[in-house]
Specification:
alpha/beta, 4-stranded mixed β-sheet, 17 helices, 44% helix, lipid metabolism, CFA/CMAS, SAM-dependent_MTases_sf
């Protein structure tokens, strides 16, 4: 019965491309119009058709992780792309819509992230082996969307582009105090200190990230210029000239948006500038994929712009600039996926085959979501005063592809401690 019901569903769903399913009883059925994209998946458990019908978004990833679902030529990308393209084209997958609506009703509970729970959620993902991240990230360990200014940009170049653009949007001046909320392994904070003369305080809830960020600051001689704390954003005191947050807002949770922007307002000086860089949805409010919630980012959510701005409007902050990055993260994830797959033997030596499949599914599904399923990146510039930033965007133009060093009165700061670190 379950095979028959799943077959009916797939016939309605797959209208573009070709999907071949080999069922546990040996039957092989093709769905779609025979065009591309195409993929063949094989079921190795009799319970799989039932589980896929009841909860497809969770079951697909779990079955691939467990090996009860395999893809010919291990073309996982082709399979996920085929499914997502057809899901976006169909409006009659009523039970999928019902499940999504149900998740949205419960999302405030799922995203309730007080400090203790927030730290546990962060540890789940970011306190993994540091060697794992070294295998697919750039040497600066930038674990957020890169900025590909030219088609031939490498991942390393694109990540430098991002850091440079962020610095320009912050309108940094030497000796300004900068708060970096969600500082990761310290790469952005060290860039702002070393190349722009800022005095950076970076905060993270990840013990591993905190340890490495501090080690990097000491190794570069920037210990007095860039300081990193194991601290929740709600516990920060004092005021700052600039505040930046990259790739952290996705972990805040809708119930805490007012708290987050109140923190930005209270910690930002009256003439200060803040920049929020976050994954977002181009198609309105939604809910987090259940597989992502369970295995990758518990408590996480990527908001629609309308959800962010509705809270900002009540916070006492001005939105001074909004930029939408569309396919930049798809290209970033493609680079990460290629590097990860090239290092699978190393990953297996750290974890196991199931972990490799889990991480591969995460990178593939994320890339496809940015290419075909409405995920983008928002960069939102905020201030307390309308004239805290120039009235045109001309200041964002850079004479140098990777940005200019910090200057004072038109002169490069060659005698600044950050420039003598090495």
């Amino acid at each position: 019965m379950w095979i028959k019901l799943l077959s009916i569903f797939l016939k309605r769903l797959i209208r573009q491309g070709s999907l071949v399913v080999v069922y546990p009883d040996g039957r092989s059925i093709q769905y779609g119009d025979g065009s591309t994209p195409s993929a063949t998946m094989r079921f190795h458990a009799r319970s799989l058709p039932r589980k896929l019908l009841i909860n497809p978004e969770l079951t697909l990833g779990e079955a691939y992780m467990d090996g009860t679902l395999t893809v010919d030529q291990d073309d996982l990308y082709g399979l996920v792309e085929l499914l997502v393209i057809n899901l976006k084209r169909q409006s009659d997958a009523w039970h999928l819509r019902w499940q999504a609506n149900l998740r949205q009703l419960h999302r405030r509970l799922a995203q309730f992230n007080p400090a203790g729970r927030a730290q546990r959620n962060v540890a789940h993902h970011y306190d993994l082996s540091g060697t794992l991240y070294d295998l697919f990230l750039d040497p600066d360990r930038q674990y957020s969307c890169a900025y590909f200014r030219e088609p031939g940009d490498t991942l390393e170049t694109a990540q430098r582009n991002k850091k440079s653009l962020i610095a320009r949007k912050l309108l940094l001046a030497p000796e300004q105090r900068v708060l970096d909320i969600g500082c990761g392994w310290g790469g952005l904070g060290l860039h702002l200190a070393r190349d722009h003369g800022a005095r950076v305080t970076g905060i993270t809830l990840s013990q591993e990230q905190h340890r490495i960020a501090e080690e990097r600051a000491r190794a570069e001689g920037l210990g007095d210029q860039a300081r990193f704390r194991l601290q929740d954003y709600r516990d920060i005191s004092g005021t700052f000239d600039r505040i930046v947050s990259v790739g952290m807002f996705e972990h805040v949770g809708v119930p805490h948006y007012k708290e987050f922007f109140a923190t930005l307002r209270d910690r930002l000086k009256d003439d200060g500038v803040a920049l929020l860089h976050t994954i977002g949805r181009a198609d309105g409010p939604g809910s987090t994929n259940p597989w992502i919630t369970k295995y990758i980012f518990p408590g996480g959510y990527s908001p629609a712009l309308s959800e962010i701005l509705a809270v900002v409007e009540q916070s006492g902050l001005y939105v001074t600039d909004v930029e939408v990055w569309r396919l930049h993260y798809a290209e970033t994830l493609k680079e990460w996926r290629n590097r990860f797959e090239a290092s699978l033997d190393r990953v297996r030596s750290i974890y196991d085959e199931r972990f490799c499949r889990m991480w591969r599914f995460y990178l593939v599904a994320s890339e496809v979501a940015f290419r075909h399923d409405g995920l983008v990146v928002f960069q939102i510039q905020l201030a307390k005063k309308q004239d805290a930033v120039p009235l045109t965007r001309d200041y964002l133009a850079s004479r140098d592809r990777l940005g200019e060093p910090a200057t004072r009165d038109g002169e490069k700061i060659t005698d600044h401690p950050a420039w003598n670190a090495n």
